[in-house]
Amino acid sequence: MAFIKTYRSFRNRIENAANLDDLDITLAEITRSIGCDYYALGHHVEQGEVKLTLRLCNYPPSWVQFYDDNHLSGRDPVHRAVGRTHEAFLWSEAGQYIDFSRTDQRHMELAKRHGLGEGFTVPAHMPGDIQASCSFAAIPGRKLDEDGLILARLIADDAFKAARRLIGYKEFMKQMRSAPLTRRQRECLAWVAAGKTDWEIGQIIGIREGSVRRHISGACARLGAVKRPQAVFLACRVGAISYHEVRCAR
Predict the structure, then answer these.
(1) C-beta separation of 24 from 42 below 8 A
(2) Which residues make Cβ contacts (< 8 Å) with residue 246, sequence separation at least 6?
(3) Residue 239 falls in which region: left (phi positive, over 0), alpha (psi -120 to 50) or beta
(4) CA 24, 81, 227 angle in degrees (round to 5)?
């Protein structure tokens, strides 16, 4: 009964958070209450790759700096495991979902040196959304509390939904879907995804190389992408281009 009361109390605070600072304070309290030291909630993208993304965490600053400086998001074994399952998992169990390499082991050892021991991650993305998760971690040597992990699993979805609401992410995605790409923009992105250069795309579809660049830039602007790979990714996410189109473009 006390467990349910604690969960409801935290859920109410999360749902009533007026801004990200409120949510950050609440998540920090939840983290301590479940016997952990750190939390991280957010999308799995490099900072600046997509215009509107979510990232809240209180990880050691030295690790956050090292992580960003070395562009580790795409190589993070925990993030890769999230892409393979919707089930919550301990970081030590990530090898059940991915081929855990020496590089992955090195990644976890580096995280430990910066103050992160065992962790627990809950995949938090929704269909058609950028991959995301909510994680809780302890300092090296501290065991995670099993009852605390149950609460973490329950609260993660509520926290992510609240964070999406607070940054206006739902409206952002709606705007992306309501701003369809032109036929040429879709064609160009499909060929970009197939690995073609601007010159090759121009030769294939019969337009100038400069026109190809303009169509791709226009697609990036409509999708809110900073770089071409993100434009392709987001176009696939919102259904502007399909995997079948990319395969046919090869």
Answers:
(1) no
(2) 190, 193, 194, 236
(3) left
(4) 75
In the chain, the percentage of residues whose pLDDT exceeds 70 is 86
Tokens of 108: 């976890």
Asked whether residue 128 carries a pLDDT value surpassing 90, the answer given is no
- Residue 34, CB-side half-sphere exposure with 13 Å CA sphere: 31
The alpha helices in 70-223, defined as continuous H runs, are 77-82, 102-113, 146-167, 169-178, 183-193, 198-205, 209-223
d(Cα 224, Cα 226) in Å, to the nearest integer? 7
Q: Provide the 10 A C-beta neighbour count for residue 68.
A: 13
User: Which domains are present in the chain?
Assistant: 2-168 (3.30.450.80), 179-249 (1.10.10.10)
Query: Model confidence over 36-70: pLDDT tens digits?
Result: 999 999 888 766 555 557 789 999 999 999 999 99
Instruction: Find tokens 């950028």 and name the residue.
Output: 130
Question: How are strands ordered across the β-sheet holding 132-137?
Answer: 55-57, 38-43, 132-137, 119-123, 89-90
* Range 120-148 burial, b when 16+ CB lie within 10 A, else e: bbbbbbeeeebbbbbbbbbeeeeebeeeb
Question: What's the rounded Cα separation, in Å, for the pair 97 and 78?
Answer: 10
Is residue 88's pLDDT more than 80?
yes
DSSP state of 143: P
Please, what sign has the CA dihedral across residues 91, 96, 99, 100?
positive
**Has this prediction a pTM greater than 0.85?**
no
Residue pair 88/121 in contact by the 8 Å Cβ criterion = yes
User: Phi and psi at residue 233, in whole multiples of 5°?
Assistant: -60, -50
> What sign does the dihedral 153-154-157-160 (CA atoms) show?
negative
